[in-house]
Design goal:
The structure holds 2 protein chains of 2 kinds. In chain A, a hairpin with a 5-residue loop joins strand 9 and strand 10. Chain A is α+β, with helices and mostly antiparallel strands. The chains are: A alpha+beta, B mainly alpha. At the A-B interface, helix 2, helix 8 and helix 9 of A face helix 7, helix 8, helix 9 and helix 10 of B.
């Protein structure tokens, strides 16, 4: 058994772990990053291949070797989830993501207080664990700004230091300065969506994306090839952690990346401190790293799983679990789709950045009056491509309009005509946290290393959620009609209750050690030298917005706290 | 993955050449010369007189399927995506070859799914029509596929009729629209059908601004580029 010593070990070098690795290494700390997958290069991503990367998900965890199981409730049998959306390589999900880079609104950070103020406590479902965040927008703004500038986000401000700017998102929280790059070019679907939404008095704008719209930090600008979500960028214009923070970490001289490393335990002592991690390396070698600080930063399943796998006699319910909240309050965005086709014009949505190209924020968060609607919170409403990707294999999976069968000559003729003339709209809705939506260890299914698989127990079909999904899907129908599309139809919404995208929760952050797992610095209450970072810490989904930029801003905040506070005075930051 | 399939295919073709008396494998060049659209027949005219084991389906197979199953899958896929003049279908795109290679490679864990599914399909068709699926009329094949899609085929246990239908449909779409390197989408038949230009590394601002069909050649594949439409 090989044993190594270092200042900091980071498990998972993705959206959060990659930022912390670079920031700590640049500050002079010795950092080892452990990554389950490989480290790929930009040249690995050309040419693009829809079968390999979209259909067979070559940049995601292999569901056979790394299964995650799901069941709708504790009485049901849990079976392997067919699709995992997290990444499986250095850079994590930022290598293959759709690059949507959103800030949350100011009031999203005090969602319980604001909801009660506006609608009364009865508006919140009795069984929901909706809470305020322990961090404010004002505290996080400098780190949002840092993420946008250091990584590289293209967009248009809608609120510059309190001044509303047309053409940007007029609902956004005040930002201290403009985006570092202008928005990407709009495609035909965005032009149609913009016109339709404006006809209805709504406020469309180009989605902010972590893609270089102009050459940026020695990286070239986007080529509009259309292969974003599910694919690596073949020119390095996507501002992934792979091409932004990992080179910074390398250049520091203080960073070492170990690929093919499956961490199976965080080690701890009887004083309550963690002492490092153990992992299986290439060739199934068994290795241990001793570290002063342990940062656990994989996707949310493995944050909870690793804490449960690390139980000891002193911590029989797993590490970081004195509150009993570990593995609870799991959330996911539920997607509702509406499709449009045109007869007399092409849309060609295989061109341009593929995911959620153009957006309205009018029906997101609490940006509209929910009085009498029977639900709280909302959705990001965007136009883009089916399954966030514009190739024909993805398009062959869409729900069809009434009267069109799934096969035969009629289907063929529909598909032949509609493929280059369709638009795909999605409402990405913010589901509330509920304590009985959980991750634990599956007693029956093990991964390729013999470790119990993470088991998700989750059913989105709550009354509040169903009412919201129906409302926003109807809004998309209205926009589709306003776009002048002769054919507009809605897809059925995940009838079995399976979780959608952007899973969050399991190690929720809070202000009180009794009802949360970490503080606002993602530091565990129970073990001051153990940090759990990423969207597992989100106490609510925040919005219908994609979570990555908030994950990244929180990671910068954690790194800042470690460098400027913890290093001088190791111990609880709060 | 792609290299793996290509390599496996080259290996199997070489193996077939050395053991021709006992396999149905034929060199790819030979397969390409044959007429297509004979899904419902057992022995294409060009093959009559050859020993049964030497006959082939026109579409490529031999990495996994036996001859009868190859005929069944060819017929099934063609009903899902039928070809017409100017509208290439599953046989034109060589969907059979795609599925055959996939089951010998990336989808090897689904071999039993197909074996059992095809056996159940013929059991269902024998009960309903007294013949296996590959010998039914196109109308009867359509009735059968509809019954599977709706879960109204009691001969199916595992895989279920719906699961079998869904899988064959998914794999047919992959064979129509995946890059030709995987054995289907022959001569970009599927991409031409729907107007997808392939893995274009760049679209220009003018491309993005146009509400017209994108018609610039060539279509770009992983190892090949389409000749111009006239070519």
């Amino acid at each position: 058994m090989a044993t190594e010593k270092t200042d900091v070990v980071i498990v998972g070098v993705g959206a959060a772990g990659g930022i912390i690795a670079a920031e700590l290494a640049k500050a002079g700390m010795k950092v080892i990053g452990l990554e389950r997958g490989p480290r790929l290069k930009t040249s690995d991503f050309e040419p693009h291949d829809e079968l390999r990367y979209f259909e067979r998900q070559d940049l995601r965890p292999n569901i056979k070797t790394d299964p995650v199981t799901w069941r709708p409730n504790t009485g049901a049998h849990a079976g392997p989830m067919p699709v995992l959306n997290n990444g499986n390589q250095a850079g994590g999900g930022t290598v293959h993501y759709g690059t949507l880079s959103w800030r949350m609104h100011e009031d999203d950070f005090r969602v319980r207080t604001k909801t009660v103020e506006r609608y009364g406590a009865s508006a919140i479902p009795d069984d929901s664990s909706l809470v305020d965040w322990p961090v404010s927008y004002a505290e996080l703004e400098p780190f949002y700004d840092k993420a946008e500038y250091e990584l590289g986000v293209s967009g248009k401000a809608g609120n510059l230091q309190g001044k509303t700017i047309d053409g940007g998102n007029v609902f956004e929280a005040p930002r201290s300065r403009e985006y570092p790059m202008p928005p990407l070019l709009v495609d035909q679907s965005a032009i149609l969506y913009e016109a339709g939404a404006k006809k209805l008095g709504l406020h469309p704008f180009p989605s902010p994306r972590a893609i270089a719209s102009v050459p940026y930090n020695n990286r070239p600008s986007c080529t509009y090839c259309g292969f974003c979500q599910a694919f690596g960028c073949h020119v390095g214009a996507k501002s992934s952690i792979l091409v932004t923070k990992l080179p910074e970490a390398d250049a520091s001289g203080n960073f070492k990346l170990v690929t093919g490393a499956m961490v199976y335990r965080v080690n701890s002592d009887n004083a309550g401190n963690v002492t490092g991690v153990s992992y299986y390396g290439p060739g199934r070698s068994d290795n241990t790293i001793e570290a002063d600080i342990v940062i656990v930063a994989p996707f949310i399943y493995d944050n909870t799983r690793l804490m449960l796998l690390s139980k000891t006699d002193k911590f029989p319910n797993g590490l970081a679990n004195s509150s009993g909240h570990l593995g609870k309050h799991i959330m996911a965005h539920m997607m509702a789709n509406v499709f449009v086709t045109f007869d007399d014009r092409y849309v060609n949505n295989f061109m341009g950045p593929s995911a959620q190209k153009h957006t309205i924020d009018d029906f997101n968060a609490d940006n509209f009056d929910h009085a009498g609607l029977g639900f709280i919170r909302g959705a990001q409403l965007s136009i883009g491509t089916p399954n966030l990707e514009g190739g024909p294999i993805a398009a062959s999976t869409i729900a069809l309009p009434p009267g069109i069968p799934r096969w035969g000559a009629k289907y063929r003729d529909f598909f032949a005509k509609a493929y280059a003339r369709h638009g795909a709209m999605v409402a990405q809705t913010e589901n509330l946290p509920y304590p009985d939506q959980t991750i634990d260890l599956d007693p029956n299914v093990r991964d390729a290393w013999g470790l119990p698989a993470p088991r998700v127990t989750y059913d989105w079909r709550r009354p509040n959620e169903k009412a919201r999904v129906a409302f926003v899907q109807n809004k998309l129908m209205e926009i589709g009609k306003a776009m002048g599309a002769p054919q507009v139809w809605a897809a059925p919404v995940s009838p079995a209750g399976a979780p959608g995208a952007h899973h969050e929760g399991g190690t929720r952050m809070g202000s009180d050690p009794k009802d949360s797992v970490v503080n606002k610095y993602s530091q565990t209450w129970d073990h001051p030298n153990l940090f759990l970072v990423g969207s597992s810490t989100f106490p609510t989904m925040g919005t219908g917005f994609n979570p990555t930029l908030t994950i990244q801003a929180l990671a910068y905040m954690t790194a800042d706290a470690i460098v400027n506070k913890y290093r001088k005075n190791p111990g609880p930051l709060i | 993955m792609t290299k793996h399939d290509e390599g496996r295919r080259a290996f199997l073709v070489a193996l077939g050449a050395g053991a021709a008396a006992t396999t149905a494998l034929v060199p790819e060049a030979f397969a390409k010369d044959q007429k297509q659209h004979h899904a419902a027949t057992d022995a294409p005219p060009a093959n009559r007189g050859m020993p049964p084991a030497m006959q082939h389906m026109g579409g490529g197979h031999g990495a996994f399927f036996n001859d009868d199953d190859a005929r069944t899958v060819t017929a099934f896929a063609e009903r899902l995506m039928p070809g017409e003049p100017g509208k290439p279908g599953a046989t034109d795109a060589d969907v059979l070859n795609y599925i055959d290679l996939a089951l010998a490679g990336a989808y090897a864990d689904q071999q039993d799914f197909y074996r059992r599914g095809l056996t159940q399909l013929d059991a269902h068709c024998s009960q309903a029509y007294g013949k296996p699926f590959r010998r039914l009329t196109a109308e009867q094949q359509d009735e059968t596929i509809a019954a599977l899609e709706q879960g109204k085929a009691p001969a199916f246990v595992w895989p279920s009729a719906v699961a079998f239908f869904n899988t064959v449909r998914t794999h047919t779409m992959e064979g129509m629209f995946a890059d030709p390197i995987y054995g289907g989408n022959k001569d970009f038949a599927g991409w031409r059908l729907v107007g997808f230009p392939g893995a274009q590394p760049i679209f220009t601002e003018d491309d993005m601004k146009s509400p017209k069909a994108f018609a610039r050649e060539p279509i770009v594949g992983l190892q090949s580029r389409a000749k111009s439409k006239e070519g």
